[in-house]
Q: What sequence folds into this?
């Protein structure tokens, strides 16, 4: 990066930090004005387009404006400052420039985020969990995680996701939270270990956002996670809201709970509790006793896509659907294109649901594993289909997923991981074939609507 760009980015970043710190007193019009400042910072056009899209939503008084207000209203001051600085400035605005600079220097564009499993130990035994067959005897050494995060920051990555297992079984993670204060950490957790003391620790550090796993409401959550679990999660949410801390909720859509996850009742409950983001994942038959009968049907998957479209238009919360949002990411994001997964053994997997690897992070740099033959092959084939509503190489293009796992990977990362590509191959092909016409119809309608809106806007 040239001297001019460094000075420019530093000046704009400093000014943006100061301006965003005044959000608590901003009017709606001033908030819209801030988007013009934000648009000047990233040099990547796709980021500028997203900022312009957000500005249009603000002008329409979209519920997204209420989400922005949540950033400042009744929020812990340190937490607010850390979220603004680490997510908006470091990761989204300045980070994209740093990632482009890294690409110019090395020829490799870094992913947007890393997902790391510090441990696969867990105090629950949920049926269908993908973590079921990992060894619980070894955790990923703290020094390895620290090194990876340091290398990630040098690439411009300031958003790190922790999963497991149950990450909070490792108390030493707080050492990382404190050391890397310029990073935002989202931790997927069953919340069983979160109590008033831990909430105070969250508030003292400021850069942690828990993502609490739910299966729906009380009946669905307690059925899979044990009696009383839902009520404990409710109490944790209340503690986090009272402390002024953001939290997300993570759901796994199955054939059994789709109607609940897609209901206004469930989403309104989350909004009321103060949840800022809902992550929806689909059950994939990997891990402990894989069962294709737990998968959401093709019709249920399409229904959830439509419901999320509705929720985004009317609910003051953010929504991410790991599969159905392929149109927002131009297809699959695995293999280091936008993210990767490092499991507790150090194996670098293309995706948290792809239980095969070619490299281990122990003894290798993050740049080296990003450029493994496996990851390069995956990125060369993305997107795997011509329909971004069918992005996944496991369930939408299973023939390609099998080739990646059986031909390009060096090992499966837990006992029985190959079952998805052997014993279940025919079932996955049938699932893909059943979903294809549904998704193709939906994609054609989506493009038609988008073209119509563009025509009206131009006219």
A:
């Amino acid at each position: 990066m040239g001297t001019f760009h460094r000075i420019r980015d530093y000046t704009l970043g400093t000014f943006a930090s100061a301006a965003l710190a005044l959000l608590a007193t901003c009017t709606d019009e001033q908030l819209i004005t801030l988007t013009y400042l934000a648009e000047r910072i990233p040099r990547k056009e796709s980021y500028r387009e997203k900022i312009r899209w957000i500005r249009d939503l603000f002008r329409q008084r979209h519920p997204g404006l209420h989400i922005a207000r949540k950033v400042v209203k009744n929020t812990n001051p340190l937490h607010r400052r850390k979220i603004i600085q680490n997510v908006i400035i470091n990761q989204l605005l300045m980070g994209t420039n740093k990632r482009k600079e890294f690409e110019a220097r090395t020829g490799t564009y870094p992913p947007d985020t890393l997902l790391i499993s510090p441990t696969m130990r867990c105090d629950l035994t949920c049926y269908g969990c993908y973590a079921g067959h990992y060894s619980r005897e070894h955790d990923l050494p703290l020094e390895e995680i620290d090194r990876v995060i340091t290398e990630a920051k040098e690439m411009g990555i300031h958003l790190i996701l922790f999963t497991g297992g149950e990450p909070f079984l490792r108390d030493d993670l707080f050492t990382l939270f404190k050391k890397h204060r310029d990073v935002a950490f989202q931790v997927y957790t069953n919340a069983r270990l979160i109590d008033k003391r831990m909430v105070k620790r969250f508030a003292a550090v400021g850069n942690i956002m828990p993502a609490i796993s739910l299966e729906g409401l009380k009946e669905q959550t307690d059925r899979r996670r044990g009696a009383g679990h839902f009520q404990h999660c409710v109490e944790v949410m209340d503690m986090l809201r009272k402390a002024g801390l953001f939290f997300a909720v993570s759901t796994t859509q199955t054939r059994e709970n789709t109607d609940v996850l897609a209901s206004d009742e469930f989403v309104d409950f989350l909004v009321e509790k103060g949840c800022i983001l809902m992550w929806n994942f689909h059950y994939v038959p990997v891990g402990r006793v894989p069962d294709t009968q737990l998968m959401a049907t093709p019709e249920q998957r399409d229904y959830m896509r439509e419901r999320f479209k509705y929720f985004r238009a009317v609910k003051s919360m953010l929504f991410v659907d790991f599969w159905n949002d392929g149109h927002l990411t131009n297809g699959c994001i695995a293999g280091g294109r936008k993210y990767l997964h490092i499991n507790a053994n150090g194996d670098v997997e293309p995706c948290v649901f792809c239980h095969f690897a070619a490299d281990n992070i122990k003894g290798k740099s993050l740049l080296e594993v990003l450029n493994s033959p496996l990851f390069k092959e995956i990125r060369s084939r993305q997107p795997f289909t011509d329909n971004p509503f069918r992005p996944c190489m496991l369930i939408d293009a299973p023939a390609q997923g099998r080739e990646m796992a059986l031909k390009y990977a060096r090992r499966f990362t837990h006992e029985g991981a190959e079952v998805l590509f052997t014993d279940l191959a025919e079932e996955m092909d049938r699932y893909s074939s059943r979903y294809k016409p549904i998704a193709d119809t939906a994609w054609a309608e989506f493009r038609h609507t988008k073209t119509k809106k563009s025509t009206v806007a131009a006219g």
In short: The mean pLDDT is 89.
